[in-house]
Amino acid sequence: MDHVPGDTSPDPAPSDALPDVAPQLRALRRRRGLTLEAAAQRAGLSPAHLSRLETGNRQPSLPMLLALSRIYGTTVSELLGEAPPERDPVVRADRSEPVEADGWIYRQAGGAGRALQCLRVHVPYATRADIVRVHPGEEWIHVLEGRVRLALGEAVHVLEPGDSAHFDSLTPHRIGAATSGGAELLFVHTLMQSPVAELCLGDGTPHRR
Description:
Organism: Streptomyces litmocidini
Number of helices: 5
Low-confidence stretches: 1-18, 193-209
Protein name: Helix-turn-helix domain-containing protein
InterPro entries: Cro/C1-type_HTH (IPR001387), Cupin_2 (IPR013096), Lambda_DNA-bd_dom_sf (IPR010982), RmlC-like_jellyroll (IPR014710), RmlC_Cupin_sf (IPR011051), TransReg_Diox_bact_type (IPR050807)
Keywords: DNA-binding
Strand content: 25-35%
């Protein structure tokens, strides 16, 4: 069921930065036949937090949008309510509106409804609070500006402009800028699903907000 009893914590004012994401999140979850509790467990969120996302009282971060898109078998574009009439192979720069969530600023760099999601991302400075993510699929990043700190398992790599990384997303990973002003990168990931997908971990335990 969608009602979360006993949740009396105050909600922040709704944000209009992602105007279509709240109804899309609820509609896509129901289309997948998932309860609020089941979807929240797969995403590493509390049911109360996912409920706030679906009612527009919380704004999802980019990692949350990516995780939820995998759970629901869709794309970030569909979560944002974008439904182009046809698949145009060309993505024009002037038609790609930036979206900001929790310091991440990103633009669509690929077509909607594809198995590959391609984004141009501004990544904020890395902190210890950044979420470690684990999920099926592959990711590829290419640094355009600034320096990026990529943690893969126990290894930490610092990527310079022009450097790339291609890795299995089942490897626990964290991405953040190594420069205070952030970094610009191209980000590509596969859209894959699994019954045990979408674990968002912090220090080895399920991440809750």
